[in-house]
User: What shape does this take?
Amino acid sequence: MSTNLHSETAITSCLLFKSDLLNTNVVVTASEVPNPALTFSYLSSDRKSLNVVGRAKYSALDPSEGITCLAQNPNNLEMIASASSHGGDILLWNVDPSKWQTDERVEGNKRQKTGVATIEPTATLKCTHGT
Assistant: This one.
C-alpha cells in the first residue's frame, strides 16, 4: 500500500466518501504548485492506511495553478469536479476505475506496470474569468 499522496506539496483539498459503485471508501486529494496533483485512494477497512489507485495525468493539470477546490456531484457520487481559486478551467473526473487507462512507467528499456492508473478528465468546463 502507498501513502505517498503528494510529492513535496501540501494537500489543499480533500474529499472522503463511500462509493456504492466500488463498495469502498474513496479519498480524493489535490495540491497546488510546485507539483500540482490529483490523487485517488482507497481507505483501508481498518481506516489506518490509504492505497493510491490513480493519479491525474500531469499534462491535464495547469502547472501554474494546481488545484484548490474539489466538489462532488450529489446525483452521481463517482463524478468529481476540480478547480483552482486562482483561475483556470473546471475539470470533471470519473472515480470509476473501469473508465481509467493503465499507467506504465519506463525504467531503462522496459515498461513496468505500477498498479496506479493515470486518469484523464472526463470533461473540461472553460472559465474565461476564473472560478
Q: What stands out?
A: The CA atoms of residues 72 and 85 lie 17 Å apart. The radius of gyration is 15 Å. The chain has one domain: 11-125.
